[in-house]
Specification:
Strand content: under 5%
Order of helices and strands: HHHHHHHHHHH
Radius of gyration: 23 Å
Helix content: over 70%
Number of helices: 11
Length: about 280
Amino acid sequence: MKRMGSRLTFNKVWKAVFLLATSFALLSLIVLLFRIFSQGIGYLNIDFLTNFASRIPAKAGIKAALIGSLWLMAVVAPVSIILGVSTAIYLEEYAKKNKINDFIRMNIANLAGVPSIVFGLLGLTIFVRMMDLGKSILAAGFTMSLLILPVIIVAAQEAIRAVPNEQREASYGMGATKWQTIVRVVLPAAIPGILTGSILALSRAIGETAPLVVIGIPVILQFLPTGLLDSFTALPMQIFDWAKRPQEEFQYVAAAGIVVLMTVLVLMNSIAVIIRNKFQKRY
């Protein structure tokens, strides 16, 4: 009781510190969003979405980059999610508890923190040169899949591990096989957690520039890709090119491109959140 006053004071001080830190982060975000929207809103129109890149700021558009990013996500999402969830299922449900598998788990977790440019060098060596895929959607998609694969694996492992063992035992008691238990009991219960990790991973993939720069993805294209082996450009590459140009007008065009990229991210995340909430209500 004698120390109660000092402990309450200590609690209030740290509460104020945490509130100030949160307020500073929110204020910085608001200022950033205000600047982006105030600079880019004048260039956001139908022509900006339907025109190709141009040397003239007023005629510059983001059509090729927008379609290219959608092509890229069409490769990254299924490849990374299928491989990531499959790996997590094996490590959590089938792999034995020994030093080798513990070493594998530890390295997968460490790979989640490796700089993206390292994955770009890996993609350049394997997919662009060894597999001779060139600067194609497929090569970039595989490279980005490697980048976010550790994040999805770790998130899926945690989600699968969080499913109570009682549910597995009840399934076995009803006569289900191990695979039936995984498909009908474990995965449905783990899908909200898996989707949460996948949302964050895909959001990182669509906004990464370094791996695309390393594998040599072109900045400006005047045509749309028609297949997975075609050349393409992406929103981060186009924004990067506009932002580094000396003309002030291109800074505003880059801000408009950032708004488009953020809109795509919000739409992707909204769809994934709706799916996650649907499974949360069911299970």
